[in-house]
Write a structure and sequence with these properties.
This protein is an alpha+beta fold. It has eleven helices and 34 strands. The longest helix is centred in the middle third of the chain and has 17 residues. The protein is globular. GO terms for molecular function: hydrolase activity, hydrolyzing O-glycosyl compounds.
Length: 574
């Protein structure tokens, strides 16, 4: 029932599954709260946002201001100090010479996750490729956790703080795939890591080729010493050889002839993988998955990249993630959900901390602007984006030229538009050859074979530039926030400009989206949105150390043939 003072249209508020679910936040992240408040007559209203902790104790009050006089639309900016569950209420009052009227809204939940849920630089490699050796006879000796650990310092030196591993479990033998997804493997083909399980075990076991559980624990410890967290793949599917197939045949889909159906994503077929059927023993599957997550958490893993979560029931994830959050709120789940936006958003509302996104395919100025505004404002209450430049499955068409400038500018966009971004090993070496023309798969994909790369003496590498980008991100809090992205007008479709500000930390980014030719344009900085007075400001380029005297209308020229595709500048605010 409405109160005497009508408080409506509260934002952000997430109604999902018949209840309000928490707005996403991290400690000290600023969140704008808005609402409309009215009362009969001509009396003046005042309002404030009151933030409570999980026990109901008031921890802060924030006066709301009338953003556009006459609209009754009120706003305030709040933040919370620590990880945990909170809720906020909007309270309003109206006082005249003869009465005081009070009103309040419902409770709206908010959850502050640890900062890594919002901010992170992710790197992906296959442990079996790191330290792998090509022998004189052409055969390849697999890498292991011991050899892969030697690669961790280089990953940390590039500024990555999350190292994601594809599945590390035993790999099935039945219908094993060969190189380039061949159906006729040789004895030396290692199989696809996502075809999980054989006689050595399933999701709770280590592939013996990679080592032992102790080796894995040492690998995690080595990463921690270098400031890197390990993210494991959680892929709820099996090979035909997985122990579940024999112990729980009801967990799988059956064809009319009684055989188990393998996975398909037309036109792709995955003969080596069985999907899970969640209908017949939901509780049994849920309990087993929770057990598996608990096991790896006990080994020091606090981040999981979930494979294809959109092919499993959303309520299953809400159930599982709620259980894990109640026990281990530090654990973070990234949804690998390249699917319909409605499903991606539903998974975020169900509890996923982050998600893969469409950034990988957004290339033009208008696409990037539109998508950037969507993820930073329209969906930021429930959907945290992680911008990946490539994955083992996705070799985007714009990378297939191998032009180093494309690799550089895509890394800049991914690492500065959002606080979390990622890249798959080989990106820094400009790997780009497609399996077939017009397709987005890599030739000699690492999914099907072991890669031997020359990290010691590469012919060319983007690694120093990647390291510089991640250093800039780490040293500038504005780049560690999502909701502060503002695009500014340019007179060229080839050049995009945007800003991010956090307190006195103001960063401007200008990118030439044309990797081949010099482009110049006027950039029209909105000084009011930048929070700057006057018409001129000093800009320090964080990439080359140059200082510029820019104005609200600044001509910018970027020439990739001269090694200059981007400006990332810090503005002296005071």
């Amino acid at each position: 029932m409405i109160s005497r003072i009508v408080i409506s249209d509260i934002s952000p508020a997430i109604y999902f599954g018949g209840e309000f679910v928490p707005v996403k936040a991290v400690p000290l992240e600023e969140i704008k709260i808005s609402a409309t408040a009215v009362i009969e007559g001509h009396e003046k209203l005042t309002a404030e946002v009151v933030v409570h902790n999980a026990t109901g104790k008031v921890i802060s009050r924030h006066p709301m201001v009338d953003v556009v006089p006459g609209t009754n639309r009120l706003e305030a900016t709040i933040s919370v100090p620590d990880v945990g569950d909170y809720f906020f209420i909007i309270e309003a009052d109206s006082t005249s010479q003869y009465r005081t009227v009070l009103g309040s809204s419902e409770k709206y939940p908010l959850r502050a996750d640890r900062t890594r849920a919002l901010v992170g630089a992710w790197y992906e490699f296959f442990p079996r490729s790191e330290g792998a050796v090509k022998n004189a006879d052409g055969s390849i000796t697999s890498g292991s956790f011991t050899t892969a650990a030697r690669r961790i310092p280089a990953v940390a030196a590039m500024g990555f703080d999350v190292l994601y591993l594809p599945p590390i479990h035993p790999i099935g033998v039945a219908h094993r795939k060969g190189s380039n997804n061949s159906l006729t493997p040789t004895e030396s083909d290692p199989g696809v890591p996502w075809a999980i399980g054989n006689s050595d075990g399933g999701h709770d076991a280590i592939n013996p080729t990679l080592g032992t559980m102790k080796d894995f624990e040492n690998f995690v410890a080595t990463a921690a010493k270098h400031g890197v967290e390990i993210a494991l793949d959680l892929a709820l599917q099996t090979s035909p050889d997985h122990p579940w197939v024999h112990a729980h045949p009801g967990w799988f889909n059956k064809r009319a002839d009684g055989t188990i159906a393998y996975a398909e994503n037309p036109p792709k077929k995955y003969q080596d993988i069985y999907p899970i059927n969640f209908d017949d023993d939901y509780e049994g599957i849920r309990n087993e998955v929770v057990r598996i997550i608990r096991l790896w958490v006990s080994k020091g893993v606090k981040i999981f990249r979930v494979d294809n979560p959109h092919t499993k029931p959303v309520h299953f994830w809400q159930d599982v993630l709620a259980i894990i959050n109640s026990e281990s709120p530090e654990v973070i789940f990234l949804a690998e959900a390249f699917t319909a936006p409605a499903m991606m958003h539903a998974l975020g509302k169900a509890g996923f901390h982050q998600s893969y996104t469409y950034f990988t395919w957004r290339t033009s100025k208008w696409e990037l602007t539109d998508y950037g505004r969507e993820v930073s404002t329209q969906t930021s209450a429930f959907f945290r984006p992680n911008f990946w430049v490539n994955t083992p499955d996705i070799n985007p068409l714009h990378l297939q030229s191998g032009n180093p400038n494309v690799f550089a500018l895509r890394a800049v966009l991914a690492s500065t538009l959002t606080p979390s971004w990622g890249m798959y090993a080989g990106y820094e070496l400009f790997e780009h050859t497609p399996f077939k023309e017009g397709g987005e798969e890599y030739l000699d994909s690492e999914k099907y074979e072991i890669k031997v790369r020359d990290w010691a003496q590469p012919k060319k590498t983007l690694a120093p530039f990647i390291s510089q980008l991640n250093t800039i991100r780490r040293e500038n809090s504005a780049l560690q926030r999502l909701r502060n992205l503002i695009f500014h007008t340019t007179d060229s479709d080839a050049i995009i400009a945007y800003s991010k500000r956090d307190g006195d930390n103001l960063i401007l980014v200008v990118v030439n989206l044309d990797p081949d030719f010099a482009q110049g344009t006027m950039v029209h900085w909105d000084m009011q949105l930048l929070g700057l007075s006057g018409d001129h400001f000093i800009a320090l380029d964080l990439l080359d150390g140059m200082t510029y005297n820019w104005s609200s209308h600044t001509f910018v020229s970027l020439d990739p043939t001269q090694g200059k595709t981007v400006h990332i500048v810090r503005v002296k605010v005071s």
